[in-house]
Specification:
By secondary structure, the protein is of the alpha/beta class. The protein folds into 2 domains: 352 residues, 3-Layer(aba) Sandwich (Alkaline Phosphatase, subunit A), CATH 3.40.720; 82 residues, Arylsulfatase, C-terminal domain (2-Layer Sandwich), CATH 3.30.1120. The chain has 15 helices and 18 strands. The protein has a 10-stranded mixed beta sheet with strand order 9-8-5-4-10-1-11-12-2-13, sandwiched between helices. Strands 15-16-17-18 form a 4-stranded antiparallel beta sheet, covered by helices on one side. It has a two-stranded parallel ribbon with strand order 3-14. The termini are far apart. The N terminus is likely disordered.
Length: 556
């Protein structure tokens, strides 16, 4: 519709401006909704679409098979570095987040000079909601989600908490950690975190004004371990349904509890997608599912993830620590139901989503991410040929992938996680397509005629499954430089450093060039003022001048 006015007076001019704004806003409403679901410590082999039959993940699998499975996608090896990379589009060496994670009592956070993904999206007209884990700083209010581009936040600030009590007990003492916006949500004590976060996400979708595009960042606690006394909490009836998970090579009961936690995470994906379908928002959405880092395997952090057949675990630069289980779905993707082998990194989401939202990523400066929107939607070659895995100046460990080759150097002396950790999930018979067909996610996608053809699933799954053959599993000592051809040897069996010394030299030079641009790690010691005993046993903002009573307002 066109509006014509004679600009004879100032009043008429402003009327024209007013109606122009309405037209522009209506056009903006065509922007896709963006739903980013981030799992915590999920292993490569914990999803069915990578070949394991052990723990059914029908909703996640339906999303993946109907969209694009990202088989050559990298994340950081730990929580805070990955989340900072997602939010800034920068490698963690360029934000000072490269060493370990942000601890509860550290008076620091992701630098306030950094512009974050929700802040970019807000400029494009998005309404931004965050649900779940933050882990990018909270010692002053300015570091929290509500001050960094989000319009609401229901979740917690630290690396983890117990799923029922919402308490965290690192040094120096216990503290409660659950927020509704800036207030402590004491009313959620005793309610299971995955359920709380799912219900909040569904509520946000149901109440969303569809004239504006939605950005929902759902950062689950699952499947991160909770506390030492109860590392993998889950409802007893769900745990009991996995009594058949038995093997001599891992803690059976812990794996059963892990499976229950993962099942509820998978259910959450289905409920969110069903809510989008109910609101007629699914037809104009981008849904991303990703882990934040590799799985905490076989007792790491008292958890039981599986990265099989990839080497290593969380907090390592082996593929099992940095190659992420991920998929993306959208009706905007022209070539769907495929496996992408193009290289991609978690920093790429910021420019990719800005382009998808109608922005222009080419105008961004000083980021490391590369827009993959054309690659994802049209299946063209990726512009990314190298990925910095990390440089940790504190430990001396560094890793880099260029093309087919990956180098790791300067590792710490702990080689406990240098192995291949199962369970494989390949000795469990049957992959039930009817379970996928009956999942909420599949039904939601099928309702808009955008679900995968069930006859295609086996071929897609085979393409997304890594098989490494029977190579001799050679060791790579901490003092060694380790070089692998990841395309041919994704399980990192054969160290080629002595075979290709020139490749080693060239990649070490590139690592040195990255190191020259690095900020020093920003880690600092604990601040005694953060002790929850000083704040009514709450992990609270402690660096501001505002009174504690204002921050500890109880939600009725």
């Amino acid at each position: 519709m066109r509006f014509w006015f004679i600009l004879g007076t100032v009043e008429n001019f402003w009327v024209l401006v007013f109606f122009t704004q309405i037209i522009t806003h209506a056009q903006d409403s065509k922007q896709p909704n963006i739903i980013f679901i981030l799992a915590d410590d999920l292993g490569w082999n914990d999803v069915g679409f990578h070949g394991s039959n052990e723990i059914p993940t029908p909703n996640i699998d339906a999303l993946a098979y109907s969209g694009v499975i990202l088989n050559n996608y990298y994340v950081n090896s730990l929580c805070s570095p990955s989340r900072s990379a997602l939010m800034t589009g920068k490698y963690s060496i360029h934000t000072g987040m490269q060493h370990l994670v942000l601890l509860p009592a550290e008076p620091r956070g992701l630098n306030l000079s950094e512009k974050l993904l929700p802040q970019y999206l807000k400029e494009l007209g998005y309404v931004n909601h965050m649900v779940g884990k933050w882990h990018l700083g909270y010692w002053k209010k300015e570091y929290t989600p509500m001050y960094r581009g989000f319009d609401s936040h229901l979740g917690y600030y630290n690396w983890g908490h117990h799923y029922y009590s919402h308490t965290l007990n690192p040094s120096p003492s216990w503290g409660y950690d659950m927020r509704r916006n800036m207030s402590v949500a004491f009313d959620l004590h005793g309610q299971y975190s995955t359920t709380v976060f799912t219900d909040e996400s569904v509520k946000i979708i149901k109440n969303h004004n569809i004239s504006q595009p939605l950005f929902l960042y759902l950062a689950h606690a699952a499947v991160h371990a909770a506390t030492a006394y109860d590392s993998l909490p889950a409802p007893d009836d769900v745990v009991a349904s996995f009594a058949n998970l038995t093997d001599d090579h891992w803690d059976n009961y812990r794996r059963q509890k892990f499976a229950a936690m993962l099942t509820l995470l998978d259910d959450s994906v289905g409920e969110v997608m069903q809510a989008l379908a109910d609101r007629k928002m699914l037809e104009n959405s981008i849904i991303i599912f990703s882990t934040d880092n590799g799985g905490a395997a076989e007792g790491y952090d008292i958890s039981e993830a599986s990265n099989w057949p990839l080497k290593g675990a969380k907090n390592s630069l082996w593929e099992g620590g940095v190659r992420g289980a991920a998929a993306v779905w959208s009706p905007l993707i022209k070539e769907k139901s495929r496996v992408s082998h193009q290289m991609m990194h978690i920093t790429d989401w910021l420019p990719t989503l800005l382009d998808a939202a109608g922005g222009n990523s080419s105008q961004l400066s000083e980021i490391d991410g590369i827009s993959m929107w054309d690659t994802l939607t049209n299946n063209v070659d990726s512009n990314r040929s190298e990925i910095l895995l990390n440089i940790d100046q504190t430990t001396g460990e560094a890793g880099l992938r260029i093309g087919d080759y990956k180098i790791i150097t300067g590792r710490s002396n702990d080689i406990s996680w240098d192995g291949w950790f199962g369970p494989t999930g390949r000795n469990v018979s049957g992959y039930n397509l009817s379970v996928i067909e009956n999942s909420l996610a599949y039904q939601a996608l099928d309702s808009v005629k955008l679900a995968v053809d069930l006859d295609e699933i086996d071929a897609i799954r085979e393409n997304a499954t890594i098989s490494c053959g029977d190579f001799d599993q050679g060791s790579c000592l901490p003092e060694d430089v380790c070089l692998y051809n990841i395309s041919n040897d994704p399980c990192e069996y054969v160290n080629l450093a002595k075979v290709f010394p020139n490749t080693v030299t060239a990649m070490l030079v590139t690592l040195g060039e990255y190191n020259d641009t690095s900020l020093p790690p920003q880690n600092i010691g604990d601040d005694p003022s953060a002790d929850p005993r000083l704040h009514q046993h709450v992990w609270s903002i402690w660096g501001d001048n505002e009174t504690i009573s204002e921050l500890l307002e109880v939600i009725p």
